[in-house]
Write a structure and sequence with these properties.
Layout: E1 2-6, E2 12-16, E3 41-44, H1 88-99, H2 101-104, E4 125-129, E5 133-138, E6 144-148, E7 163-169, E8 172-178, E9 198-207, E10 210-218, E11 227-235, H3 249-257
Parallel strand pairs: 6-7
Antiparallel strand pairs: 1-2, 3-4, 3-11, 4-5, 5-6, 7-8, 8-9, 9-10, 10-11
C-alpha cells in the first residue's frame, strides 16, 4: 500500500506505508566522446587491505623496524566479513606464507602485484580511457594493465597481471581477467591463489570523486567457493597530480640476490 505525500511546489512523491522512501536515481557519470562513462583520472584506495584483505587487528612487525613496520588494523574488504574459504591444503600454504611474509611476499621483492591487489596497494592509479582499450597505470613499479574493449581473446600466456577483456554494463565497467601465473599474493598476509585464478571486476562511478570497486574471485584449486571484495576508490585531486616514477627493483636487490654475494649480507 502506498501513501501519497506532497512536496512544496506541488511535486508528488510516493512513499511506502512502512516509512521507507523512494530511492534516488542512480548517479550518471560524465561521458566520453563516444558516450561511455568517463572514468579518466587518478584514483586510490584508502584502506589497509594491502596488509590483509580479511578483518585484522593491529600487530607488530620486525623488531628492527619498530613502529615503522607495525601492521595497522583493518575491517577487511571481503563482502560479508570473515575469512577466506580455503581448501585445507591451501589454508596450510597460507599459514606458511604468513610466517615467511617479510621475505617471501612478492611485493617485498618488487614483483608485479597481480589483480586485484594492484587496485588497493597504497599507490595511485591512473585510468586512461579510449573506445578500443582502457589503460590502468599504478605508481607501484609502473605496473600496467591493458583492458581490451574490442577483439576479446584468450590470454596468450600466463603472467603476473593476467589478461583483461572489458565490456560496459550501463554505468559499470566489467573486466574479465584470466591468464594469471600462481606467484602473486592478494596481500602481505600471504593470501594466495593458483594459476586457475579468475577475477571479474565491476567499477562504477558513484559520484564525481568516487568509484565503487568490486571483484569476484574464483579459484577451484584454492577456494571451496567464489568470494567477493568491494571498496571505494577516491579521486586524487591535487592540481599537479601525476604518476611518479617508483621503480623499486634497486631497493629489493639485497633481499633477492644478497645470498649470491661473495660476502653474503648478514
Amino acid at each position: 500500500m502506498l501513501m501519497v505525500g506532497f512536496l512544496a511546489g506541488g511535486l508528488l512523491i510516493a512513499v511506502e506505508s512502512s516509512g521507507g522512501q523512494a530511492s534516488p536515481a542512480a548517479f550518471r557519470a560524465p561521458r566520453t566522446k563516444d558516450g561511455k562513462p568517463d572514468l579518466n583520472g587518478f584514483w586510490q584506495a584508502i584502506n589497509s587491505a594491502n596488509w590483509d584483505i580479511t578483518p585484522h587487528t593491529a600487530a607488530p612487525g620486525p623488531n628492527t623496524l619498530g613502529e615503522l613496520g607495525s601492521i595497522p588494523p583493518g575491517l577487511g574488504i571481503i563482502e560479508g566479513g570473515g575469512q577466506l574459504p580455503y581448501l585445507p591444503e591451501a589454508l596450510t600454504k597460507q599459514k606458511e606464507n604468513f610466517e615467511k611474509r617479510w621475505k617471501e611476499d612478492p611485493e617485498a621483492k618488487c614483483y608485479l602485484p597481480g589483480v586485484p591487489r594492484v587496485m588497493y596497494m597504497p599507490f595511485p592509479i591512473q585510468i586512461i580511457e579510449s573506445p578500443q582499450m582502457i589503460m590502468m597505470i599504478s605508481e607501484y613499479k609502473s605496473a600496467l594493465r591493458t583492458v581490451f574493449m574490442e577483439n576479446h581473446k584468450k590470454a596468450p600466456a600466463d603472467s603476473w597481471m593476467g589478461w583483461s577483456n572489458g565490456t560496459w554494463d550501463g554505468e559499470t565497467l566489467v573486466i574479465d581477467n584470466t591468464g594469471f601465473n600462481d606467484r602473486s599474493w592478494f596481500d602481505r598476509a600471504g593470501n594466495h591463489h593458483s594459476d586457475s585464478l579468475h577475477v571479474v571486476e565491476r567499477i562504477t562511478m558513484t559520484d564525481i570523486d568516487h568509484l565503487n570497486y568490486e571483484a569476484t574471485i574464483e579459484d577451484p584449486q584454492v577456494f571451496s567457493r567464489s568470494w567477493k571484495i568491494s571498496m571505494p576508490l577516491y579521486r586524487r585531486k591535487e592540481k599537479n597530480m601525476e604518476i611518479l616514477e617508483y621503480r623499486c627493483v634497486e631497493y629489493a636487490e639485497d633481499l633477492v640476490y644478497g645470498h649470491l654475494y661473495k660476502d653474503p649480507i648478514k
